[in-house]
Amino acid sequence: MISCAARELFEETGVLLARNAQTLTIGQRASLLDDLESKRTTWPELLNLYGLHLDAKDFTFVGRWVTPPFAPRRFDTWFFLATCPARQQPQVTGDSELDSGEWIRARAGYAKWERSEVIVVPPVLHALKMLAGGLTVDLVERFLSVPQARREPTRRIEFYPNYVCFPVRTPTKPPATHTNCYLIYASREIMVIDPGSPYEDEQRALSDCADELIAVGRTVREIILTHVHPDHVAGVNALNDHLEGKHGGRVPVAAHRLTAESLKGPIRVDRHIEDDDMLELKGEPSVHLRALYTPGHARGHLCFYDQRTGALISGDNIVGYGSVLIDPPEGNMREYLDSLRRMHALPNLSVLFGGHGPAIANPYQMIDEYISHRL
Description:
Blueprint: H1 2-13, H2 26-37, H3 43-49, E1 60-66, E2 76-81, H4 106-114, H5 122-132, H6 139-143, E3 157-160, E4 163-169, E5 178-185, E6 189-193, H7 200-214, E7 219-224, H8 230-233, H9 236-247, E8 253-255, H10 257-263, E9 271-272, E10 278-281, E11 287-293, E12 302-306, E13 311-315, H11 333-344, E14 351-354, H12 363-374
Parallel strand pairs: 6-7, 7-8, 8-9, 13-14
Antiparallel strand pairs: 1-2, 3-4, 4-5, 5-6, 10-11, 11-12, 12-13
């Protein structure tokens, strides 16, 4: 793993973290990097040719993170801290594996995330936050302080501030295995979108996540449903039972009127959400979501758009993993294409938070691909 980390570091930044690398000139390191990237030489051959070797003392293990459970394709990734060797300057180039990049202080990078200017996956967000706290004597201990750094699955994912994605296991359509429940919060209120699991252990895990947000002085204002399908609504009553038993009261359930009609009986919908309704969460800062009526996958399907950040909760209209089922009479292909075009017309889209899979950071490109695929 250390050898892999050293090779990746060299390929992506040009930093050669090997003993005796100080004997090489800048030009020699550049030539070696070109040989490696062009596959004219292998990593072991490169090290042997110039008498370089890796020393485990140069790498400090700071965590092992596993992909969240929303994707069947899983990654088990090791993280290390290392000191940049003297007289080596990391470079971000268009020729590397990176799409783009910049060198920035960890504190400034974390501040960009806090302003919703960048999307950051959990292990990287954790690293930014730890480094932003300073290079203290307990830095490694702080890196390893969270359960996720010890291979426990990441359940609470905050791609953007105030937007918690909590995947719950559901009997959904393959290849997906989980449905994303979203807990949107401001300093005083929480909105829960699509608590969809029928399984008691998953319902308890979601309730625990809600309790963590409530514990700092917030209240759950509403449970909101994007659409009628069981993998998005099956946990509504269990969550409300928990809120009533532990926090003293049930909360209203809100959905489109067509969703409410279809659910009549097992789930009571207390309030109808219509197209262009504004949903506000009070606090500093407050969160404003505009409801969009976007049928096609389901008759009463709703999406929710935050114009300030460009975030769109897309429900099952666009998902981060798998495809979208259009199943008449509930589904309608013409309406679905119209809904995709309406989503594409939104200004300033920065990310799609779908009902399944990870966040989508190239929203306009993804919507174009969906439209082209369906046509």
